[in-house]
Write a structure and sequence with these properties.
single chain; binds NADP nicotinamide-adenine-dinucleotide phosphate; eight-stranded mixed sheet; alpha/beta; 21% strand; 224 residues; two-stranded parallel ribbon
C-alpha cells in the first residue's frame, strides 16, 4: 500500500527490523519508534521512546496520522517482562488519544492457554497442539518462560479491552532464515507440528493482515 503511513514500535528488534525493511520496500511511509534510535538505519524517520517509562506526548506524536501501528515489542530479559503489556498499554493510549485504530502485535504460540487477569481460565490445551506438545514441550516451555508469557498474556488482555482494531500474531520458535511466504496460519490456535517460523515471515504476515479486515480482533497462529 504505497503512500500509507505506518508506525513501527521496537523497530530495532529481530522482527522489528524486518518490519521496517519490508514496509519501506513496499512503499509505506514509516515512522520507527525505538529506545535506541541510533540503531536504526540512517534516514529512518525516528521517534525515541523507552516503553518501560513511556512519554505520552512522544508516543502520540509517533502514531499521529498513522494508518496502522505495528509492534515487535518484547522483553529482552525475564526481569523486564512487564514491558510487553505496559508498553502496549501506552501505545494503545496514544492511539486512542490520536484516533488511530489499527494495531498488529507479536505474542507467542503458547499464550492461548496462559491465564491472565482478563482471561483467568483459558482452555488447558491448544487445539492445534499434538500429544507431545501438550504433555511435554508446552508445559516445560511455559514454566521456563513463565514471566515472559505472563507479560504477553496481559498484553493480549490490553488489546482485547482496547476497543481498537487489533490483531495478535502468535509465532512458535523464531529463526533468522529469509522470508518464504510459505507458512500456515490458523485463527485462535496453533498449527499441528508447526515448531518454527522466521522473523522475516512473521513480519510479512503482520504487513499482510493490514489488508485483511477479517483478521481484526483475532489471534493468529503461524508456523511452517
Ligand atoms: N524468540 C522466540 O523464539 C520467540 C518465539 C515466540 C514469540 N516471541 C516473542 O516475539 C517477540 C519479538 O521477537 P524478536 O526476536 O523480534 O525480539 P527481540 O529481537 O528481542 O526484540 C525485542 C524488541 O523490543 C524492544 N524493547 C524491549 N524493551 C523495550 C523498552 N523498554 N522500550 C522500547 N523498546 C523495547 C527491543 O529494543 P532494543 O533493540 O532497544 O533492545 C527490541 O526492539 C519477543 O520479544 C517475544 O515476546 C519470541
Amino acid at each position: 500500500m504505497p503512500g500509507k503511513k505506518l508506525t513501527i514500535f521496537a523497530a530495532t528488534g529481530g522482527i522489528g527490523r524486518q518490519l521496517l525493511e519490508q514496509a519501506q520496500a513496499a512503499g509505506y511511509q514509516v515512522t520507527a519508534v525505538a529506545r535506541s534510535p541510533q540503531k536504526l538505519p540512517p534516514g529512518t524517520r525516528a521517534v525515541a521512546s523507552d516503553l518501560a517509562a513511556p512519554d505520552p506526548e512522544a508516543l502520540a506524536s509517533a502514531v499521529q496520522g498513522a494508518d496502522a501501528v505495528l509492534s515487535g515489542l518484547g522483553a529482552r530479559s525475564a526481569s523486564e517482562a512487564g514491558v510487553a503489556w505496559q508498553g502496549t498499554r501506552a501505545i494503545v493510549q496514544a492511539m486512542k488519544a490520536t484516533g488511530v485504530r489499527r494495531i498488529v502485535v507479536v505474542s507467542a504460540a503458547p499464550i492461548g492457554t496462559v491465564p491472565s487477569p482478563g482471561r483467568p481460565a483459558p482452555p488447558q490445551h491448544d487445539p492445534g497442539d499434538g500429544f507431545f506438545m501438550r504433555r511435554l514441550f508446552s508445559p516445560l516451555i511455559k514454566f521456563l518462560l513463565r514471566k515472559h508469557y505472563a507479560g504477553l498474556a496481559r498484553m493480549e488482555d490490553v488489546l482485547r479491552d482496547s476497543g481498537l482494531d487489533w490483531t495478535v500474531v502468535r509465532p512458535p520458535r523464531l529463526t533468522d532464515q529469509p522470508a518464504t511466504g510459505a507458512y500456515r496460519v490458523a485463527y485462535g490456535q496453533n498449527l499441528r507440528r508447526g515448531l518454527f517460523i522466521s522473523r522475516a515471515d512473521v513480519a510479512g504476515l503482520m504487513l499482510r493482515v493490514l489488508g485483511q479486515p477479517e483478521t481484526v480482533q483475532r489471534a493468529i497462529g503461524v508456523a511452517y
